[in-house]
Structures are given as structure tokens and as C-alpha cells.
Amino acid sequence: MLVHGSCVALGGDAVLLLGPSGSGKSDLALRLIHEGWRLVADDQVALRVEEGGLLASAPPALAGMLEVRGLGIFRSLPVAEPAPALRLAVHLAPREGVPRLPEPATWRAAGIAVPAVALHGLDASAPARIAFALGAATGRLRQRAGAFTAEEGA
User: Fold this and answer.
1) pTM
2) How far apart are the first and last CA of the chain?
């Protein structure tokens, strides 16, 4: 299945960036790539079910390409291979649409749920927040309260 969005990976863990045109998906992907993440796909992300999870990749025609607003479309970027497992969905939202202490949420595709958060993608701290969110979504970081706490007081 194809999803409109951008996707980046750190190791074998992918993060799907979702939002309307102009919300900063490609910009945020560019900043994450600059910090050592790998491009999975920009503009369209191909998701497939494998072993009860979702794997993310680029449609062949878009593989290794990233739109950099104001500069154009760049080709031959290093991509995450093999297809990484989708671990987190990030909805890019206006700053006022991002709750201070969100409740746990999920995003679903093909009947499979992954943790989801809302962030303002153009904030300077957005790449660091995504790294924290991915750490929490994969269990490498723990929270006391917020989007990844399974129960009160966890």
C-alpha cells in the first residue's frame, strides 16, 4: 500500500512523517538525514505487511530522491536497506495542535497499529523529539507520563 508522507530510519527502525503538503515532512526528513538517519522514502512510502509488522520502502521510481524546498529534487541519496520496520508515525501539526502531555495514540495501516505522536515539524527540536519518541516507542527509553506510558505511574 502507498501512503502520502516521508519516512526515515535509524538502524532498522523507521519513522513515518505524515501531514498535509507544506507541513514540513521533507524538511524534517532532511534535518534527520543531516543528523545521521537514512532516507526511506519522500512523498510516497510503500508499506507492506511482513511477520505481523509493517516494513517501509520507497516506490522504485522515487528511491533515493528527496525534495528540498527552494533547491529542487535531489537524487542518489543513501537509503535505508533492507526495508526497515515501521515503529512510529509522526503527525505534523501546527504548534497549537500539539498537546503538552499527550495520551498514548496509534496509527493504523493494513490492520496493524504503530505508536503515533503529533509534533510541530518546523520546531528546531523536532529531530531530537523524534529520536526520543522512537526510543520510547521501541522501549529503549522510558517515560513517567505521556504518549508512551501504558498505564498510570509507569
Assistant:
1) 0.93
2) 35
